[in-house]
Amino acid sequence: MPQTQQVADGEAHRDVVITGTGLVSCRGEGLDAHLDALAAGTPAPVDAETYAPYAIHPAASLSWDAQIPKKSDQRQMEAWQRLGTYAAGLALDDAGIKGDEALTGTMDMIVAAAGGERDVAVDAMILAEAAAGRNDIGVLINEKLTTELRPTLFLAQLSNLLAGNISIVHKVTGSSRTFMGEEGAAMSAVQTAVARIRAGQSTHALVGAAFNAEHPDMLLGYEMNRHLARGPWKPVAERAS
To answer: Residue 157: left if φ>0, alpha if ψ -120 to 50, beta else—which one?
Structure first.
């Protein structure tokens, strides 16, 4: 919540204060789990089997019901949406305002998310036909885009769908702004929230981002540029450049 101070020119200056944090990663959920892991210095969990020869840090096992009570809401969300909605609930809990509709009803929301999850089956089909010897790759891609993809696929991946789910589940119904992207977009969301509060355009906001890095299409995209490490997991500092 913002705190107001008087400055020399007489104008109000609003400090921006973080009152609650929601965090989900391979380390688990919540600040305590992450601080404990950092203090212990133990390596993050590694799964070297599911996507061998690539090792990944798998998402923590979560009880979705704790922050997304309705099974119907859970079913219509992809993993990135569930992660973002779950983390939003943790943040509201940590701030002590979960269920306080007087506050959530006037709370602004600024969230970022990647472009959702691709249709992996279509990606695999294109790669398989290309590997079989087709030389007209551009024609091939256009064929599959017009015949295999659901017309509404992209609409279901937009970051405002995450904002809508958070609004429905957690009753955050003030203004809503969204960014599409990963880490950079998340920082833009935070910067926007800070600027609005300092300018007096907002008093309290739910801000954050969601990203499902474990999804196969993300691994495929990185591997096509040979950005994935192979073999046994090593800390980044110990890998060959």
So the answer is: alpha
